[in-house]
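Hey, I'm writing a tutorial for new members on how sequence and structure tokens pair up, and I'd like a real worked example in the thread rather than a made-up one. If someone can provide the structure for the chain below, I'll link this post from the tutorial.
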Amino acid sequence: MDATELDRRLREAFDAPDGERRVVVRQARDLADSGRYRADAGVELSAEAVVSHLRDAPDDHLLPEKWNWWMGSLEVAYGGYAEFQVRRWKRSE
């Protein structure tokens, strides 16, 4: 997964601050590198897929919360995704 492409797409789709995008990009890279999503979904994790899934999250969630919402869905469906949730991030003002 191209981290620069994901960051650009997240910025365009959600207008999220740098810190929020940075933590989601880092978690997405870790998830892609683990191969878990590919094994469960049958496709490589892409920037397009991340943005698409995060758009399904509740509108009132911040970007890391949207990520955690998606990871929670994957955890229920497949198990093994809790380690990819965001535990904390520096909020940008």
